[in-house]
Write a structure and sequence with these properties.
The complex is a heterodimer of chains A (about 140) and B (about 400). By secondary structure, chain A is of the alpha+beta class. Chain A is built from three helices and eight strands. Chain A is globular. In chain A, a hairpin with a 6-residue loop joins strand 6 and strand 7. Chain B has about 400 residues and is of the alpha+beta class. In chain B, the strands form seven sheets. In chain B, strands 3, 4, 7, 10, 16, 17, 18, 19 and 20 form a nine-stranded antiparallel beta sheet that branches. A four-stranded antiparallel beta sheet of chain B has the order 6-5-8-9. Chain B has a three-stranded mixed beta sheet with strand order 1-2-21, with helices on both faces. In chain B, helix 2 packs across helix 3. Chain B starts with 7 loop residues before the first helix and ends with a helix. Classes of the chains: A alpha+beta (about 140), B alpha+beta (about 400). The interface between A and B is medium-sized, with 20 and 34 residues.
């Protein structure tokens, strides 16, 4: 059974110019979707990747990337909502493209579902109280 | 309809005995639907309203106490944020949207505006020490010229919010028709009608429960920032003469309130410094107003529900900044509360800048204060200008500077 997961890949300088991610498809039969990618001035790369495929093959693929020197983190740890800073206005809800941020229509409280998040960070721009934080 | 059911004195007598029947505006809507206006008007003494939102036209007067030797403060900074010192020696006014003096503003757009006047006010209310740096030009009676010290709310002689415009009666729904993202006081607006921002508490909002200003006036005692405050005047841009629907609800921003209240009784839960990306800093504030059910008409207004309140949809890429007055249509708060509405055949995600959950909490707190006998209702000493008053909100008519100079010479 295929499943989807989102990971943050960090490319050290020596790996930044190698075509590694495409190997996920070629070697492991995985489908991937690049959600965001950037290269810093020190030639370190960062990529947010959604990977779709058999869980075992996902593990193998990520192990392959780790062996090549890439740092791998689960995305869900990287965007978080700091509850005590949120007064539940909902400014983030209308701009969230994936429905990770929702407003309950009974209580009118805003909640964050990490699994839905693609770390686009539009919530960070829209939040008036700095309640959304990116650790990427 | 016009028959008086109870007076302020009778209500306060019941409040004192802990016998007043108080419901929130949401509860009043449900009760009137269920039991009918006449019966509920006989049963309920007070309806409580509430709103919690970003209210830019806010600020605080602070009297920091005299120094030795004395000093006439002409320039002051609180945690690096300029406070107005053009008053008597040690009176200051700090405005909510004043950015810190070293803030990069929008030089790199959209600016972050991490700390400003509203944050200073929130820090004081939270009991934090705030750094005061001040300068004076020196006089015979006020010789001191510089000051650098820490202040805290408990040590100030007076510290009170004095907000020139809060609790707008209805407001715009902001959208963006352009092809670039906008950073506005109504939030981040995505291109091509990508989303919409709105800001009123709708059926809980104080002035939407008293559309003709029959009840709320100068001297009305209110919940302000978690403490007690008063309506002190009509708010700036008070505009009672706008078009209204058949229930009397204004079809655009209309009445506003100026309010004042002692910061020493306030609480951080109800007063927050906020940063609106690309726009500036501001104050998010909780206000609750009790409405005495003096007659059936008062309750009829309290029963105005979200579906009765329409807000104008305005394009913040052109119509708003250029002041064209163009409007794209109306949408009801009932529709906005679902999180989506349709405009020109396109479904748009709508999200508020004000907190409905906190507005509801405020209405409930005020209800509990009145039920407990700790909050008496006050009769206004004067009412706010109504639709027939002729008070209107004008734009500035610019006159060329040379014309002005000619006038002065004459």
């Amino acid at each position: 059974m295929t499943s989807s997961r989102k990971v943050v890949l960090r490319f050290p300088p020596q790996a930044a110019n190698q075509p590694l991610v495409c190997e996920l498809s070629l070697k492991f039969g995985l489908v991937f979707n690049i959600l965001r990618a950037s290269i810093s001035p020190h030639r370190e790369g960062l990529m947010l990747l959604e990977i779709v495929g058999e869980p075992d093959r996902q593990e193998e693929g990520l192990r392959y990337l780790a062996d090549k020197g890439l740092g791998i983190e689960a995305l869900s740890q990287d965007i978080r909502k700091i509850e005590e800073r949120c007064f539940h206005c909902g400014a983030c809800v209308g701009v969230c493209p994936t429905g990770a941020l929702t407003c309950d229509r009974e209580s009118y409280l805003v909640s964050f579902e990490e699994k839905q998040c693609i770390a686009c960070e539009i919530c960070i721009l829209s939040c008036p109280t700095h309640a959304m934080e990116a650790l990427i | 309809m016009g028959e008086t059911l109870r007076t302020y004195e009778e209500i306060n007598e019941k409040v004192k005995r802990g016998k007043a029947v108080v419901v929130t505006a949401e509860e009043a809507i449900g009760l009137v639907r269920q039991k009918g206006l006449e019966r509920v008007a006989r049963e309920v003494d007070v309806v409580t309203s509430g709103t919690f939102g970003i209210m830019c036209s806010s600020g605080a007067f602070l009297n920091v106490g005299h120094t030795k030797p004395r000093m006439k403060i002409s320039e002051a900074f609180l945690n690096g944020v300029a406070a107005y010192g053009g008053l008597a020696a040690v009176d200051l006014y700090i405005g909510a949207t004043q950015p810190a003096k070293d803030d990069p503003l929008n030089k790199v757009h959209p600016g972050e505006f991490k700390y400003g006047g509203a944050h200073v006010i929130a820090d004081l209310v939270a009991g934090k020490d705030v750094h005061l740096e001040a300068f004076g030009y020196g006089t015979d009676c006020y010789p001191r010229r510089t000051l650098s010290t820490w202040i805290a709310l408990k040590d100030l002689n007076q510290a009170y919010l004095y907000n020139p415009r809060n609790a707008y009666q209805n407001y715009n729904v902001a959208v963006n028709c352009s092809d670039r993202t906008l950073f506005t006081y109504m939030g981040v607006l995505l291109p091509n009608l990508g989303n919409a921002g709105f800001s009123s508490a709708g059926q809980l909002s104080p002035l939407l429960k008293d559309p003709y200003y029959r009840i709320i006036g100068i001297g009305t005692r209110i919940f302000l920032g978690g403490g007690t405050g008063y309506v002190s005047w009509q708010g700036t841009q008070h505009n009672p003469g706008v078009k209204r629907n058949e229930k009397g609800v204004p079809l655009s921003g209309a009445g506003t309130l100026a309010v004042a209240g002692d910061m020493k009784g306030m609480h951080s839960d109800w007063l927050w410094g906020v940063s609106l990306r690309g726009y500036g800093c501001s104050l998010a504030l909780g206000i609750g107003v009790p409405i005495p059910v003096l007659d059936e008409e008062t309750l009829n207004h309290c029963a105005i529900a979200d579906e009765d309140i329409l807000a104008p949809v305005i394009d913040y890429s052109d119509a708003y900044p250029n002041g064209t007055g163009e409007m794209l249509g109306y949408v009801s708060y009932a529709q906005l509360r679902t999180g989506r509405f349709t405009l020109a055949g396109k479904e748009i995600a709508a999200s508020p800048l004000s907190s409905y959950s906190k507005a509801r909490e405020i209405a409930n707190i005020l209800k509990s204060w009145i039920q407990a006998g700790s909050f008496q209702l006050s009769r206004p000493v004067a009412l706010l200008p109504g639709p027939e008053s002729g008070v209107i909100f004008r734009n500035l008519t610019e006159r060329p500077a040379n014309h002005h100079q000619t006038a002065i010479r004459r």
